[in-house]
Amino acid sequence: MLLSIPVWTNLLVRTYAWQVLLGPESWITSAAQTLGFIAQGEAFYPSLAAVLICLVCDYLPFAALPLYASVEKLNHSQIEAARDLGASGWNVFRHAIYPQIKPGLWAGLIFVFLPALGQFVIPDLLGGAKTVLLGNLLQQQFGPSRDWPFGAAIATVSILFLAAALALYSRKAKEDPL
């Protein structure tokens, strides 16, 4: 529930909230300066760090919910059997847990990767026009640059990339069903 409630708020409102939270006068910036994460007099906003923080917070529910569905269906007898056979913590994860949660990880990756890459509002508002993602590049090509053929080529390649990722996922799911 805590992961899904922020999604109910408009993306633009959340992005403006992050501008306030990561601005030069915020308590987050003061704490980061005190801890030495950023230099005195600097702020998270505008920067690549602000873009990444906002992208993670905005897209985390889309990755966490499919992963949660996979973790909820874990077969604990396999984990217990691996521990009984003397497997280390890493080997238990690698051989008993990871194969069971792999579909949720892939689904989360697909749900998050290309939409986050295609985001243009967050990098424009929080990156100070210094951070360029696929969405910004497309917006620039179809907007100010008026280079529609290049914009169409970028959009086509991104769609083909997503289709290839989905085809790869589908093939792997057929080869290795759970």
How does this structure look, described?
- There is one protein chain.
- With 178 residues, this protein is an all-alpha fold.
- The protein contains 8 helices and no strands.
- It has helices at 11-21, 27-35, 48-72, 76-84, 89-117, 121-126, 134-142, 148-175.
- α5 runs antiparallel to α8 and α7 (134-142) packs antiparallel against α8.
Key structural traits:
178 residues; globular; mainly alpha
Layout of secondary structure:
Elements: H1 11-21, H2 27-35, H3 48-72, H4 76-84, H5 89-117, H6 121-126, H7 134-142, H8 148-175
Helix pairs in contact: 3-5, 4-5, 5-8, 7-8
Quaternary structure state of the chains depicted = single chain
Distance between the termini: 28 Å
Characterize the overall form.
globular
Query: What is the makeup of the main sheet?
Result: none
Count the strands? 0
What's the pLDDT, averaged over the residues? 86
Radius of gyration based on Cα positions: 21 Å
- Percentage of residues in helical conformation: over 70%
Q: Structural class of the helix and strand makeup?
A: mainly alpha
Low-confidence stretches: none
**Series of secondary-structure elements, N-terminal to C-terminal:** HHHHHHHH
Roughly what fraction of the amino acids lie in strands? Answer: under 5%
What count of helical segments does DSSP give? Answer: 8
